[in-house]
Structure formats: C-alpha cells, structure tokens
Amino acid sequence: MPIYLYIDRGSIVHRLNPTVKVFALFIMFWSVYWVDHPLALLPLGLVMVALAQLTGSWPNFYRLRWLFILLIFFTTLAWMVFYRKGPALINTRIIHLSRASLVFGFGRGLKLAELLATSVLFLSTTKVEEFTAGLQRLGVPYRIGFAITLSFRLVPLFIDSALTVVQAQSLRGYDFNRGGPLERVKRYVPVVIPVFMGALRKANNMAMALEARGFGVSATPTSYIDYPIRARDRVAFAALIGLGTVYFLIYYSGYGGISVK
Amino acid sequence: MKPLESEWAASPAAALEDVSFTYAGGDREALHEVRFELRPGEMVGIMGASGAGKSTLAKCLNRIVPRFEDGSFRGIVRVGGRALDGERVCDVASMVGMVFQDFEAQLFSTDVAHEVAFAMEQIGMPRDEIAARIGPALAAVGLAGFDDRDPTSLSGGEKQRLAIASVLALKPGIVVLDEPTSDLDPEGKAEVFALIHRMRGPDLSLIVIEHEAEELRNCDYIVLLREGEIIAHGPPAEIMVQLELLEDCGVHPPDVNRVMDALGMHAHAKSVEEAEKIIRAHFPRTAATTLVSVEPASPPPRTPDPRTNGERAEAFLHVENLSFAYPYGPRVLDDVTLEIAAGEFVAIIGQNGSGKTTLAKHLVGLLAPSAGKILIDGHDRATLRPAQTAHEVGYVFQNPDHQIFAATVADEVAFGPRNFGLDDAEIARRSEEVLRAVNLTGERNRDPFLLSKGERQRLAVASVLALRPRMLILDEPTTGLDYREQRRMMALVGDLNRAGIAIVMITHTPWLVAEYARRVVLMRKGRVLFDGGVREFFERDELLANSSFRPPEATMLGRRFGFTALGPEELADWIKARA
Taking the model in full, what pTM does it have? Predict the structure, then answer.
C-alpha cells in the first residue's frame, strides 16, 4: 500500500504554487466553517467534485469511500439523538427524527465530509516537500512545518507496526473483543505498549539520522526546487479570496444556517 | 590496550584521542580510553559483539556522541585536524556522513531527488549547486534515472544505496556505515557491499561496522572491540586468522579461515579461490585426485547426510495449490503445494517479496488463501481461527519488540497460557520449562525491555513455546544478533527440533541454512522453485545463480574440491580423510 496520497498527474492544480495550495486548504476550511445548511454546502461540494475530476484524485476517494459514507451516515444519525428541535416525525427517548434534525445532522455530516475531501484533494496534489515550502512561505518556522510534514510519514509506519503487534498477540491466544467497553480499552494494553516503545525507538533513530544529515544547521534551509509565483497562482489566489468572502457574507447576512420553524 | 602509534601520515582524516564515554544511566563505560586514527582514503572495518562499543565509536566521529546521546564524555575527537569540541551533530554533517542500519528511519522525502537534496538543503547550499550534485550522486550508487521514484517503493538494497547517495552528495571526507546490510536480503547485501568497494578512493575514508568478518576481508585495517576497548587491530591478514579471538568477540570468522584452521594451517585467504590454491599446495594428494573436477561431470561423491533420518514421517501440514493476492494487488503466492511432517527442519529462503512471510502467515491463519487450501493435522485451516491453532503452530515474529509488553520476563511468558485459561500451577510449570529451554531462568523477574536484543529474541521464542506448539515458524530469528547470539539462538532451535518440534525458518543467512536446516524451500515470485535436501540444493549451481542466493563460503570452497560441504569442519574432515 502506498504511504502517501500524492498522485503524480501534473494537472494545473498540481502545478500551482505550494503557498497557494496551502492557502486554498485554509480558504476551503474557512468557507465550510461558516455555513451549516446542506444547500449552502452543496456548491463547495460541487467544486470539490470538479477538482477531483480535474486532478485525477478519484483513486484516493475510492480508497477512503467507506470513511466518507460512514462519516455522513453516523453524523446524521447522531444528531437525531442530540438535536431535538422541530416538529418530530418520530420521537422516542433516544431518537428525535424531524425535518430540522435531519437537515442539521446531514449538514454536519456533509461538513465533515467536505473537510475530509479538501484534505484528500490537497494531499493528492501536493508533495510533502511542497507542503513544507508552502507553510514556510506563509511564515510558519521551517522546523514546525517540517515536523507537521514528517508526521504524515510516521503515521503509516505506526499503523503498520500496530497491525503486526495485533497479529503477534492474537497468535498468543489473545482475544481483543472480550468484556465491556472499558474492559476492551484495557485489553489493548498488549498492543499499545509495543507500538509505543517501537515508536519511541523509531523516532529516536529518525532524529539521529536527521541531525546526521545536517538538520538544524540553518533555520532557513534552501530549497532545491524554486516555486515562482506565476499568473495562474495570482488568478487562483484572487478566486480563493472571492470564495472566502462570499461564504463569510452568506454567514454574515444570516443565510446558510438552519432555521427551525 | 595498545594505542595506535602514529606511524601513519601526519594528518589523519580523523582521530580519537583517549575517548571514553558512559551512556546516561549506563553502569559501565561504552568506550574506554579508545585511541584510533583513520587515514585519508582508508577503509577500516570495526567488528565486535553487540554492546562492544562499535556504534558508539563511530558516533563519536559525527558528534552524535556526546551531543545527541546523553552521557559523560572524555577525550578529544579530531576530524581533518580540527578538534570537535562544542560542535553540534549538524555542524559536522558535511564532513562526516553516516548511514544507519534502519533504512526506514533515514528516508524523509517523497521522491528520490528530494531525498538526495535534503542534506544539501539543510546546510544552505545554493539551488544550482544542489541540482548539479543530485545526478552524479545517484549515478555513483547506481540509481541514475530514479529521481522521481517514491523511496518507499524501492527495495531494501536500493533504499540503503539511496541513503548512501544522500550522504555522498555532501562530498564528506569520511563516510561511516553502521551495519548497513543487517536488514537486507542477500541480493541487497551484495549490492551495498559492491557499492562500498566502488566508493573507495583517495579522497574518501570509510568506516564499516559489521559482524560478518567475511565482508571486511578487503578492508585496509580492522579494529576489534570488546567491552568498549580496542582489543586487537591490524590488517585483515593478521586479524582474520585469530579465530578464537574473533568468536570470543561475537564475530563470525570467515569460513575459509575456519577450514584452513581446522586443517592445521595458519594462513589467510582473501577469497575462496585463494583458499583453494593454498589448501591444494598443502594437500597435494587431494589436488591430484580432483584437480580437474571443479565442475564434476559425474555426480559428486555423496556422503550420507547424518542429519536426514531416512523416510519422512506422516505430514503434519498440507498446503495444496495455495494462491494469494491482496485486493487489487498482484499475486503474492502462486499455486504453492507443500507438505511438512512432524519433526522436520525446513528453511524457507528467497528474495524479499518472494512470498516467504505471506506463506508463513497463511500457515498460522493470519491470511486467508485466495485459492487452494491448508490442512493442519487433517483439519481445514480455513475453519479455525489463528488463536485456535496457537498450540499447534507457533509463530515468532522477526522483531521480538512487536510482542513484548509485560513488566517481567515471567509475565511475558505466562501471557499465552493465561489467554488459554490454564491454571496457575500449569502456567508456572510451563514458564519454568520454557525459560530453562531458552536459558533465561535467572532473568525471571527482570524487565524485558532491559534485556539485550538476543535475550529478547529468545524471550519471544519462549513465550510462543509456552503454548507447546508442535511446529514453530521463525521469521528471520537471527536478524540484528551478533554471531554469539546467533549461535545461541540456533542451538536453542536445534534443541527444540531434536525434542520433536517441527521448525520452519524463514532466513536470508546462508550458513544457517547449511548448518542447521535439513530441507530447503526456495521461493521466487510467489512460487516454490525448489523443495528438497540442503546438500542437493547447494549442488544446483544454475538454481543458486538465478535465485541470487550465495552458498556459504565453506560450501563454495568444497564444491571446488568436488564435495558439497555444509560447514567448515565437515569440509576440513573430508580433505583430511583424502590427504
């Protein structure tokens, strides 16, 4: 399984300046943040579908399809429990199904899915090194930017090691699925300890290798690839400012929320 | 300890002057008053047991000791004549490059070109200069044209060569390679050592840490460490003949030296060819009878193998037409058919990615076949959960740290039996039994994380043995162990086998196959390419060449005399009998 989501397609989005891409990530999050109603979220969703098509990112969405489906489904379901407004179609002690709770829950699910989709699009079109460069350009110190990007590399390594540990312990007759919820959490101790110890060792090795390669000599290392700002970057930047402003105005003028009659 | 006298050129590439170091929390010195000089263009091999101070010595040269590793440091380290007092690790990076054993932990980038650029970017090299150096660095390690590849998609040998390229790009005067091949398959190992020998030149000094002496035969100089002190040093011809000392220091002496020693000759050979000449000169009668039969036309004289005891017993495990592919992935196993009888000792060999571990995981039920079936003692594997057969087939993972978690050695061993609900008396009885078997009785109350790697590996075996399996699968049981620990581990495995437990060992180490296994299963691209006796396997030259599996040197040497030897002593006895 490939560790990174990056798909080398060379689309116009791929070729955007990393700073613009990091800014786009921020603007998409910003726009999603201000609105709750599914209809207000819909245009952003359409933009993302168009971008997925343009950038050839569908394989990543396919890989994560269950996450998207479960995210929307369970969020909708969860808000039927907690969002107890509007005239109920079904009202039990647990479930409160109303038009409002359905719209609100679905909106929340869509919101989370769009945040995830934005991240998937970003990672499908941006190399880790570009991410670091983009953050650096936006004023994030190199070390912090590098740490963020390095964590992307570590997560799959840890998942891999966790899977191996689960296999090793299950072969010693260990049953992870016994007992109540609290008991089950406790039953993961034989996994957590080896993974944690392994992670410490790995992190130590990595830190050593990093320093041995000169990490830390300069607070502002050079970058072997130049990322010039081109015309397309200016256009994208202007469009993003426009998008962010529109969504803020939608919120500011009282639209995009959910009204309970 | 003998100090290295300054008979050498006036300005060494690097020098350690009376360096001592104790790790924080350590109860003894990791290095004790070490004096050491490295001449420009020289290749020095450092050998010694685990914990002898090899890595610590090397890490002094690029300031990882004492800047990264806490502890108390005494002495002076000079690189290019300059004392390194107060320098940070990163300050020394462009003078001393270091390549580590753990290749996963030293690659940080998403493509090969960025990886090579990384260190140059860190030291603030101008962009044009970086771009100009990437190509030559990749060409030097044989990775030209790999620029856009994802480093995680490379083979182990390629990853390690990439790590070397990224160090070479800085054009350091010294490159230190700390056990660079311990995690590689034979092909990757050969690639890396071929590269190391190509790298030698007047402007680059090399330090190679290794515990297979064979690989360091062509160094200019050898330093042997024991418990933090330099116990011997000199040219390979002087060091390699001191077999007892080498073994005592946890180093695997070269097979050819062991053969000559067993023949009563105090000689050194740089290669199998040279050893053959020397032996033939000493034993002319052997030479006279078989001189022409380097590739014997008639089958070589087969002495009965004392380790095969006639017919095979009833099969305990049946694998029938097993195929496997990950969803949307290529086939990892392709129509594998195999039987393993109770009490057998089988080595599964093959390059990384040939399907060895995938096959083993099927045997214990961690993976389910895409096609075909597996029978354990007549029962269909598919109907049984992995835990249900843990007392039939045990699996020891390559890295013991993937399973160790308990607070004491005794608790770790008791974990399995407890999961099966055995009573305390039975658990105590089994714990005692297996700790004795792996020679850890005295460590019963210790924290497993404080044991040595070799002890942790034996503990992992013990904790699987506590379920009393009839068959034990060991995935690379000797990786990362020094020679002494390897021998101890294999003695344990041999004892278990003699006690009736069938052993299936996945390994890359040729001498383990020759000296311990009775049957070889060679895999390539998911298929079984060979399944038969060990001696028979080593007689199949074309098969060996195709599978890039290099027999141990004793076997190669024996083949030149017309005898497929499985160990140095066996070969020496055979030659003596004909002298």
Answer: 0.86
